[in-house]
Design a protein that fits this description.
- The protein folds into 3 domains: 2-40 and 171-198, no CATH class; 44-158, Alpha-Beta Plaits; 205-247.
- Helices cover 62% and strands 11% of the residues.
- It has 9 helices and 4 strands.
- The protein has a 4-stranded antiparallel β-sheet.
- It starts with a helix and ends with a helix.
- The relative contact order is 0.15.
Length: 248
């Protein structure tokens, strides 16, 4: 019985505050859409790939030990790619107005396990700039690694290119709108129950019985203003009629 009453109270609160819930949810959803489409700066990502392989020599076959050596070098290469030695040269070559640390934050270097392929990904507010930076980083690294580590085992596997209509990786408007809708709905429902909890007026006989733990013996009906006025007029007319008869 308690569960039924509790569920009934919940549904009653939701029905009572439905307008509030709808307004808050709609406002949150609209705000999420406006912020996603107009306030947040689109961020684009582009990537290039380099291959860490055996340098060309007189050997026709690549030995297993050479491959293992290259794989072990990849972790070192991943650090060198984002080092000031490489990034400062990229900034100089491209004429970028940023520090090597700021450029470092735009770049992500990754590689699959036991793979000799290294991915250099760059995020920027311009798809063209992201592609240009990625290609320049790969090119500068390929040229510099020979003098840094005295090896020549890096080649560019694929260059970053910009498609006709690049799509930003962030923000994601539809996802943001869905999150805003869910947050608005949850928040509005929570607000509805908070307001209901703070409202300590007694609204029904059942609430009174529960609060006082005594049965209700009777109720006083509310008389509308129109009914009160009509009854008052009838009373006045009756008094006047009685006075007239008495005088006669």
């Amino acid at each position: 019985m308690g569960e039924s009453t509790s569920l009934k109270d919940i549904l009653s609160t939701l029905r009572k505050r439905i307008l509030l819930i709808m307004i808050v949810t709609a406002a949150a959803t609209a705000a999420g859409g406006v912020i996603s489409f107009f306030a947040l700066t689109p961020i684009y990502e582009n990537s290039t790939q380099i291959l860490v392989n055996q340098s060309k020599n007189d050997q026709k076959e690549v030995q297993f030990n050479d491959v293992q050596t290259n794989l072990q070098l990849i972790n070192t290469y991943n650090v060198i790619i984002k080092s000031p030695a490489i990034l400062d040269e990229v900034i100089k070559e491209m004429g970028l107005s940023m520090t090597s640390q700021e450029l470092n934050e735009k770049i992500t270097v990754s590689s699959e396990q036991d793979s000799q392929v290294v991915n250099i990904s760059v995020r920027d507010g311009s798809a063209e700039t992201a592609a240009h930076i990625a290609n320049t980083v790969a090119s500068v690294f390929k040229d510099k690694i020979t003098s840094i580590m005295n090896v020549d085992n890096v080649s560019i596997l694929s260059k970053a290119e910009v498609s006709g209509h690049p799509s930003p990786v962030s923000p994601k408007p539809l996802l943001n709108i869905a999150i805003a809708f869910a947050a608005g709905l949850a928040g509005s429902i929570g607000l509805a129950f908070l307001l209901e909890h703070l409202d300590n007026t007694i609204k029904s006989e059942e609430q009174l019985e529960t609060l006082l733990d005594i049965p209700v013996l009777g109720t006083v009906s509310t008389i509308a203003n129109e009914q009160k006025t009509a009854k008052s007029l009838k009373g006045i007319q009756s008094d006047k009629a009685g006075s007239g008869h008495f005088g006669a």
